[in-house]
């Protein structure tokens, strides 16, 4: 087995409960961890035997930015579901959505949710 990891994918989107979040947008950071059997690819050195992290990034970017969700739970779930639907070799995925600019009156690094899916 193995994991494909995308860390700190920076995206700009329009998610949030507050109306201004859907108008002005804000920065988000995604971490994606995909469980996949990398045994064959680690022996063959053939891209066809793995899942392209470039394709994971492209799909995550498209799904995360194409709609406006109230909740980052929904946005992360949409990304996780799309990854599971698109890549048969992935047996499980974890998508962390970090919201560093959440409109909360507090000093914090970010708020986040972790969405997990498996076959």
Distinctive features:
single chain; 119 residues; alpha+beta; GTP Cyclohydrolase I, domain 2; 4-stranded antiparallel beta sheet; 4 strands; 34% helix
Placed side by side, the strands forming the largest sheet appear as 1-2-3-4
Q: What CATH architecture would you give?
A: 2-Layer Sandwich
**Helical content band:** 25-40%
> Strand content of the residues, in percent?
25-35%
Model regions low in confidence, pLDDT < 50 over at least 5 residues: none
Q: Name the helix and strand elements from N-terminus to C-terminus, one letter apiece.
A: EHEHHHEE
Output mean pLDDT. 98
CATH topology: GTP Cyclohydrolase I, domain 2
Please state the overall shape, judged from the principal axes of the Cα atoms.
elongated
> So, the CATH homologous superfamily?
GTP cyclohydrolase I, C-terminal domain/NADPH-dependent 7-cyano-7-deazaguanine reductase, N-terminal domain
Which quaternary structure do these chains form?
Answer: single chain
The CA-CA distance between the termini, in Å, is 15 Å
Largest sheet: 4 strands, antiparallel
By DSSP (H or I, 4+ residues per run), the number of helices equals: 4
Which class do the helix and strand fractions yield? alpha+beta
Cα Rg:
15 Å
State the domain count. 1
Q: Give the strand tally.
A: 4
What is the name of the CATH class? Alpha Beta
């Amino acid at each position: 087995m193995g994991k494909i990891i995308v860390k700190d994918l920076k995206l700009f989107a329009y998610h949030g409960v507050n109306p201004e979040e859907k108008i002005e947008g804000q920065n988000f950071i995604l971490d994606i961890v995909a469980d996949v059997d990398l045994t064959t690819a680690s022996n063959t050195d053939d891209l066809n035997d793995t899942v392209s992290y470039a394709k994971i990034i492209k799909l995550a970017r498209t799904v995360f930015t194409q709609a406006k969700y109230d909740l980052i739970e929904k946005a992360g779930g949409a990304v996780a579901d799309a990854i599971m639907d698109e890549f048969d070799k992935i047996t499980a995925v974890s998508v962390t959505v970090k919201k560093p600019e959440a409109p909360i009156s507090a000093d914090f690094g970010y708020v986040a949710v972790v969405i997990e899916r498996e076959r």
